């Protein structure tokens, strides 16, 4: 079976790797270079402790308060575009306790084997930078701490029992933090992972398995015969045939899905990151400064700051005001962080967001051989290994794992669209 994979981020590459291991012939088409979009600049961690969906109780009210603050952690750029309005209204409907619990449970189930699968990658010769330092969720306010504690029974149902820390415990766990941090939750199982090293290693292993990695290759159009996708035509006119199509192009999966007659509500959520090398301070663990919504991840010889969620269009320009807010959070919460040298140029990238906060993985409606794996939001690294397992089982063995019913693309398609797809 020949599979054409559109996309070259971590979800696409992990899926290509597993499909190749299962005996498929695989061609990967990436419009840029592999791993250069959302995968490149993320928070660089397997974020089991932070697997909650973006739509959550109180998010809409908080977002309205923050709309007038250009440096806020969440910003919605106003737009009258019908698709944008529909997306935001649908997201608002999911900002309730029931849907948040369902989304968190779904993410935790999808990520339950992530660490084990990554260990299997290393055993198969995929060499990349990974650390097992856990994560400290650091809180300035009691209110934010108690808000997070409200979801701990869900984590505990998956065997995740964080250590509760008072201000003294926070200082003992991470001495670099200052007295602003009053409360903490330490999750021991979270890992840190340098994403570029993973994508390079996956590309190398995929090619060893016979996968064709075609970078700087854009899809011009899809070829269809009835309900079957027979291949793609690139923007240069080259035809690439396949027995099945996997659309795993991150945020660009939304526009591309329209071309297949099964439009998926995947919209960009811009995030930012800044790398400091050499590391300006020594950290014992990775952290999330919860009140500022800023992730701080130590890697080999560097520290990455990452954060913000900006809903708007597809432009990837860097807003220096939002970058400054991320840097200010570090300066306010770490002793000795005073405009340190070594900052790389800030990065901004588009995360693939969905209105219910869950990924979209599975077969497209009535299309016989077209599949999608996108919409992972801020959890691409965390959910990629599990997504690759689901996609491989679905395409190769024609069995849909039970967990996949919660993230099926069909939840966004009307009966008419299902017949038309």
Automatic annotation (TrEMBL):
Gene3D superfamilies: D-Amino Acid Oxidase, subunit A, domain 2 (3.30.9.10), FAD/NAD(P)-binding domain (3.50.50.60). Transmembrane segments: none annotated. It holds the Pfam family DAO. Residues 2-393 form the FAD dependent oxidoreductase domain. Keywords: Oxidoreductase. It comes from the Bacteria. InterPro entries: FAD-dep_OxRdtase, FAD/NAD-bd_sf. This is FAD-dependent oxidoreductase. It comes from Rhodococcus pseudokoreensis.
């Amino acid at each position: 079976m020949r599979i054409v994979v559109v996309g070259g981020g971590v979800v696409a590459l992990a899926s290509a790797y597993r499909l190749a291991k299962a005996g498929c012939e695989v061609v990967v088409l990436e419009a840029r270079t592999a791993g250069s979009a959302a995968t490149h600049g993320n928070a660089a961690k397997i974020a089991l402790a932070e697997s909650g969906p973006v739509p959550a109780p109180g998010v809409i009210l908080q977002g309205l308060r923050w709309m007038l603050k250009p440096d806020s952690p969440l910003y919605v750029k106003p737009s009258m575009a019908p698709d944008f309005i529909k997306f935001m209204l649908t997201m608002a409907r999911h900002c309730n306790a029931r849907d948040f619990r369902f989304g968190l449970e779904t993410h935790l189930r999808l990520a339950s084997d992530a660490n084990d699968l990554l260990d299997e990658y290393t055993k198969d010769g995929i060499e990349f930078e990974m650390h097992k330092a856990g994560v400290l969720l650091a809180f300035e306010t009691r209110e934010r701490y108690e808000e997070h504690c409200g979801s701990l029974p869900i984590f505990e149902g998956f065997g995740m029992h964080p250590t509760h820390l008072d201000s003294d415990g926070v200082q003992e766990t991470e001495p670099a933090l200052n007295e602003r941090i009053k409360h903490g939750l330490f999750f021991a199982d979270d890992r840190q992972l340098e994403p570029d090293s993973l994508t390079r290693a996956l590309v190398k292993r995929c090619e060893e398995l016979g996968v064709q990695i075609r970078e700087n290759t854009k899809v011009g159009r899809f070829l269809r015969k009835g309900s079957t996708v027979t291949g793609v035509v690139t923007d240069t006119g080259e035809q690439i045939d396949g027995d099945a199509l996997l659309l795993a192009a991150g945020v660009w999966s939304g526009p591309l899905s329209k071309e297949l007659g099964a439009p998926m509500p995947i919209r960009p959520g811009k995030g930012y990151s800044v790398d400091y090398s050499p590391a300006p301070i020594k950290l014992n663990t990775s952290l999330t400064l919860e009140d500022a919504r800023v992730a701080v991840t130590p890697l080999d010889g560097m520290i990455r700051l990452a954060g913000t969620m900006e809903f708007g269009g597809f432009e990837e320009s860097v807003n220096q005001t939002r970058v400054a807010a991320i840097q200010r959070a570090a300066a306010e919460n770490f002793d000795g962080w005073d405009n340190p040298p070594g900052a790389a140029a800030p990065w901004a990238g588009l995360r693939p967001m969905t209105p219910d906060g869950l990924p979209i993985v599975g077969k497209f409606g009535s299309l016989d051989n077209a599949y999608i794996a996108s919409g992972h939001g801020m959890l691409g690294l965390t959910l990629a290994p599990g997504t690759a397992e689901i996609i491989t089982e679905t395409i190769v063995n024609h069995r849909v794992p039970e967990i996949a019913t919660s993230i099926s693309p069909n939840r966004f398609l009307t009966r008419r669209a299902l017949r038309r797809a």
